[in-house]
Amino acid sequence: MGSRSIIEPFRIKSVEPIRMTTREQRERCLEQAGYNPFLLHADDVLIDLLTDSGTGAMSAEQWASIMRGDESYAGSRSYYRLAEVIKDIFGFQYVLPTHQGRAAERILFSSMCKPGDVVPNNTHFDTTRANVEHVGARAVDLPIAEGRLPAILHPFKGNMDAGALIALIAEAGADRVPLVMLTVTNNSGGGQPVSMANVREVSAICRRHRIPLYIDACRFAENCWFIREREEGYAGKSPREIAQELFSHADGCTMSAKKDGLVNIGGFLAGNDEALARQESRLLILTEGFPTYGGLAGRDLEAMATGLEEVLHEDYLQYRIASTAYLGRHLSEAGVPIVLPPGGHAIYVDAAAMLPHIPARMFPGQALAAELYLEGGIRAIEIGSVMFGSTNAETGEETLASMELVRLAIPRRVYTQSHIDYVCEVMTDVFAKREQIAGLRIVWQAPPLRHFTARFQPA
């Protein structure tokens, strides 16, 4: 097609109205929400880029799959269909469905970790880190140096620093590292992919020390597309073949299927260790449900199985990555500093670079997210010192994050190019008056995962 537009590889069959709002209305809404986009009513949002998790549109085939769902409590045929799809793509023999990814994380870390353990990752996301720390273990991020520098170009900024992993294992002792995780793509690091070479290298280190390697597979298909496009030797392979090779280097995975499973709810935990799977099944029964439904309806299992197949379609992945890059390219051309190169599921604006007059302790990312909503009704999420920092209860001092980002996460198969053009226009307008944006201060917060419920006031 040359330089022609990458069109959406689908037709729209059903539409949902968006309620338009005025700036005055949004000012009231934001104040009532304590300047936290999580606390806004969805009906008051024009373009919702808060998350790509569970916010996508399902296909006609997925809706048809829902009608085929077997709602049997035990031994549902929908479970066996899902398990076969997962075994074919991911290669793992034992499959435990869960209602979403964080349930899989909780079961995994509760089964494998104990107080004092260390869990390395290229970069833990918020719920992953919280579930590690909940069992008394320490979550350690080991991104490559380029992964901490938003403006630096690197094809695989999501990679783990293999040398740092070796040093950490030597320092902590292999017996205190119950597992190593790789998040593909690396969400906290700007939606950046992990190379197959890095997966192989990390896997070899783990094998040498007899430490299991687990993949956080939320956006595995997008990562596989980047491998195909950027890594030597993969241009002629299908996304499914690349996925099969990637997971062959791992001992198991967790997945929130609300991302690359193309569903609104669902996830799973999978692996090849039979004894561990039995232990995990007991925890699953305790809090999620019987192992063949795991807290989901049979129709959800069917939709997930279909979504995992559809997400590997090449036309879909080409459109998905190109549409995200389109947003990134236009923002960069307007001068907006973003994490480069554009990731797969989102564009990350470098709030620290855009708002240098706001110190990190006044949360430039949160301030930018608030201004985006005021200016154009766009809801985004801060990924910086609100999400990954903390307040010392005794001194009031803030522990700050290494980067101050705002993520514009694009739901799958939901918005058209005109919606994305609108986002570009609003962000460009905000960028033009960036010096007028003021910082924020926290007036209330919960100890864990404070970004979900914290309330702010202008500083």
Task: Give an overview of the whole structure.
- The chain has 2 domains: 23-52 and 314-458, Aspartate Aminotransferase, domain 1, CATH 3.90.1150; 60-310, Aspartate Aminotransferase, domain 2.
- Strand 3 (118-121), helix 5 and strand 4 (138-141) form a beta-alpha-beta unit.
- It is α/β, with parallel strands linked by helices.
- Helix content is 40%, strand content 13%.
Tell me the name of the CATH class of the largest domain.
Alpha Beta
How many beta-strand segments? 16
The CATH architecture of the largest domain can be given as 3-Layer(aba) Sandwich
Query: Which runs of at least 5 residues are low in confidence (pLDDT < 50)?
Result: none
The DSSP helix count reads 16
Summarize model confidence as the mean pLDDT: 96
Short description:
The chain has 459 residues and is α/β, with parallel strands linked by helices. The chain has helices at 23-32, 60-67, 77-90, 101-112, 126-134, 162-172, 196-209, 220-230, 239-248, 274-287, 298-310, 314-333, 351-354, 364-376, 385-388, 417-432; strands spanning 47-48, 94-98, 118-121, 138-141, 180-183, 213-216, 252-256, 267-271, 346-350, 378-379, 381-383, 390-391, 398-399, 405-409, 440-444, 455-458. The strands form six sheets. It has a five-stranded mixed beta sheet, sandwiched between helices. A three-stranded antiparallel beta sheet has the order 9-14-11.
